[in-house]
Design brief:
By secondary structure, the chain is α+β, with helices and mostly antiparallel strands. It folds into 2 domains: 98 residues, Serine-tRNA synthetase, tRNA binding domain (Helix Hairpins), CATH 1.10.287.40; 304 residues, Bira Bifunctional Protein, Domain 2 (BirA Bifunctional Protein, domain 2). It is built from 13 helices and 17 strands. The protein binds one RNA strand of 92 nucleotides through helix 3 and helix 4.
Amino acid sequence: MLDPKIIRESPDLVRAAIAKKHLEVDLDAVLAIDTLWRAQLQDVEALRSAQKAANTAMAALPKGSPEFLAKVSEMKAVSAQAKERDAQLKDTEERLRQAMLSVPNLPHASVPAGKTPDQNVVYATHGDVTAVSAAARPHWEIPGFEKLFDFARGAKVTGAGFPFYVGDGARLVRALLHFFLDENGKAGYVEVSPPILVNAASATATGQLPDKEGQMYETTPDHLYAVPTAEVPLTNFFRDEIVDEASLPIYRCAYTPCFRREAGSYGKDVRGLNRLHQFDKVELLKWVHPATSYDELDKLRLDAERLLQKLHLPYRVLLMCGGDLGFSQSKKYDLEVWSAGQQRWLEVSSCSNFETFQARRAQIRFRSKESGKPELVHTLNGSGLAVPRVLAALLENNLQPDGRVKIPSALVPYFGKEYLIFA
RNA sequence: GGAGAGGUGGCUGAGUGGUCGAUAGCGGCGCUUUGCUAAAGCGUUGUACGGGUAAAACCGUACCGGGGGUUCGAAUCCCCCCCUCUCCGCCA
């Protein structure tokens, strides 16, 4: 959620932000509801004030006295009116909340203009894309692939997009996760193993609810949600808390399976390991002082990049343009790994600064030594990394003429041998 | 899952219908005393929203786990929910 004061006092700033993100938001309607709400609030508060004054006066009167009884009947009318107006206020308040939630976060000044993904800026490219085997093929076409990554049985047991990883397949998944967690730990992120079901309050704080409930799996009868990313439980760790200023910045990382219903995709996007309903991911999360958040974003991105570098996977960094920025992000980089078999880039990490947008909704603050007042932290997150697409690129890029896959040296200690064998 | 006990400010802990944002203690902050520290004394000390201001000051309202209700008036009475603790059951 954006600061209501900014919307109220600098609507033009917000209009510019909406335009840069190429969104349609009726800001005038938001402002109109806000004006109505403030008028109604003052009205109700005046009535309450009258009630309180009467109560104080009544406390000093003898209980059954004529003056007392006169006050009671007088206040009955005021009380009824207050109740009625308060109901109207509550109604307006809910509409205002909805309206405020429709206003996106402001993009940072360094975010490039643009509307569509092709207008994202290629910020950096690492590794030689042409050096990888010309004989590479999409991972799902590698002979023996289905033995180690059993989609058919996954579909039988659960549904499409829930593969079994078997033998070296399972081992490689575990090796990657272990490698990611160890590397992130070395970079200063404290490892956390969070709940993977969350309640509605948590899903609301990070923005999955109320609009995107269709993208999550929901349990019955308890109405808990399977996490779409570790970002949800991790961010909510400090929900409704005031953290020690001296503890900032706080770095955390967590491995969780991630569950996504996401309907509507088709074709190459969803073949093989490209897009799944359940996948494994290590998430990086930071709570930082507002003054440092853009430095921290760069460092976060480099931490994620280092993982790809150590795996010797070619990748590029995209700086997202305004139109491709998410609703709640101020600035975002995507890391895309080169998939030699598919001859395309696959997104494996998305590193974002939310400034106070998430923190306001989740009420995560620190007490500023400077002002003495609680202030909202800035939150950042990024994948470090998502397993299946890294896996896809690794299989395709490192496929040998003999059908084996060479394991990157950094991963060998985790995998236990130098080659993955499909046979 | 069953039975019982509880949830009050940063913490401990009073308060069972009115003058209670809430006694007291601890902690924190400020001042005094002090060579320094400690100790003592005095004072001060929540958050949010709205109004107000150049910014403050200041004014108003709300907040005693969450939500509803009764009442002129609720921390206090009633209902529902959540959480914690104890005992029993079950269980990896």
